[in-house]
Amino acid sequence: MSWKNQSGGPWGNGPRGPWGSGPSSSGPTPPDLEDLIRRSQDRLRTMIPGSFGAKGIILVVALVVAGWFLSGFYRVQPDEQGAVLRFGKFVGVTQPGLNYHWPYPIETVLTPRVTFVNRIDIGMRTGEDTRRGTSVMRDVPEESLMLTGDENIVDVDFAVFWRISNAEQYLFNVQNPEGTIKAVAESAMREVIGRTNIQPILTGARQGIETGVQELMQSVLNSYKAGVEVTQVQMQKVDPPSQVIDAFRDVQAARADAERSQNEAQTYANRVLPEARGEASRIENAAQGYRERTVVEARGQAARFLKIYDEYQKAKVVTRERMYLETMERVLGGVDKVIVDSAGTRQGPGGVSAGGPGGVVPVLPLNDLLRRQPAPAAQTQGATR
């Protein structure tokens, strides 16, 4: 007979279980709370050497609480700022050094690097060459190809340098700061390139484009309250698309030759024009001097004539005779003269008359002989020696 069919069980009367008294139940028996506490104490005693009793437990709890409080100390590095969160809400910023916050899970700290300058490359990627073990630059056309203001296509690779200016805004206002900065940089570059013709982009307008992109990026990020400062935009490579780069280089060479020719022409003009201006100034000054000299001489002659006229008015006959004699002296002073009297008798040298009346005979040219006299004298001296 089975024990289940017995009224009292094998060890006694009444409705008992197989291992003790009490009512039997078909469902599970609820756990005994006191038994659980006793078992926990026994297990803790086995884990701790010796028997500390209640004081030991209090000591252990105190050590755990002290360790929990000490876990609130943290260090912020010199290039970081500490952003303190209390139950996930931002409550303040801590500066570099040793700081304290309420331990987890009450408060936590994020430490972004606020002085470190980050870099984002757009239009290019740096990869590793596994065969050579060196880094190589890979072009990303979907980011670098842009449309210019004169409807040409240009390939622009550039880098953006930025840092965190406000830790709170950087951590909580933008979900993906780096992705946002990259998207804003690409959009700003496309806008600036779209307002500029291709020739300045390829030659001397890089600095202006970089400044324009930096200012536009900073304006957009400030409107987002991203807590980011753009420190520099640097254009790495600016070329036409690879399919037409040879034609663009030929055009560039032709423009360089044209510019060189213009510079040479300008140099020639700068040399010739000053010379022409100097010559014109010299001629003008000479004409001015001649005019002044002529005017002064005319005024002097006029003044002299007036003085002579005054003298003439005082003694007309004497003045007329004197003027006649002075004029004859001035005209005939350096000319050989032969004087023939009214009777036809020629007055020769020494006042001796020669020839008959009305007749003119040749005269010995004493003046010419006197001019030639030094030559025979020199020959006579040479012969004497």
How would you summarize the topology of this molecule?
Elements: H1 33-47, H2 53-70, E1 73-76, E2 82-86, E3 89-94, E4 97-100, E5 107-110, E6 118-122, E7 124-129, E8 134-139, H3 141-144, E9 145-147, E10 153-164, H4 167-172, H5 177-194, H6 198-202, H7 206-224, E11 228-239, H8 245-314, H9 316-332, E12 346-347, E13 353-354, H10 366-372, H11 374-384
Antiparallel strand pairs: 1-4, 2-3, 2-5, 6-10, 7-8, 9-10, 10-11, 12-13
Helix pairs in contact: 5-7, 8-9
Percent range for helical residues? 40-55%
How much is the radius of gyration in Å?
63 Å
The largest pleated sheet is described as: 4 strands, antiparallel
Shape: rod-shaped
Low-confidence stretches: 1-28, 344-357, 377-385
How widely separated are the two ends?
Answer: 196 Å
DSSP summary: helix tally = 11
Structural class: alpha+beta
Order of helices and strands: HHEEEEEEEEHEEHHHHEHHEEHH
What does the average pLDDT come to? 76
Q: Approximately what portion of the residues adopt beta-strand conformation?
A: 15-25%
Please report the total strand number as a whole number. 13
In short:
It contains 11 helices and 13 strands. By secondary structure, it is an alpha+beta fold.
Describe this structure in words.
With 385 residues, this protein is α+β, with helices and mostly antiparallel strands. Helices cover 49% and strands 18% of the residues. The protein contains eleven helices and 13 strands. The protein has helices at residues 33-47, 53-70, 141-144, 167-172, 177-194, 198-202, 206-224, 245-314, 316-332, 366-372, 374-384; strands at 73-76, 82-86, 89-94, 97-100, 107-110, 118-122, 124-129, 134-139, 145-147, 153-164, 228-239, 346-347, 353-354. Strands 6, 9, 10 and 11 form a four-stranded antiparallel beta sheet that branches. It has a three-stranded antiparallel beta sheet with strand order 3-2-5, with no helix packed on it. The chain has a two-stranded antiparallel sheet with strand order 1-4. A hairpin with a 5-residue loop joins strand 12 and strand 13. Helix 8 (245-314) packs across helix 9 (316-332). The longest helix has 70 residues, at 245-314. The chain is rod-shaped, with a radius of gyration of 63 Å. The protein starts with 32 loop residues before the first helix and ends with a helix.
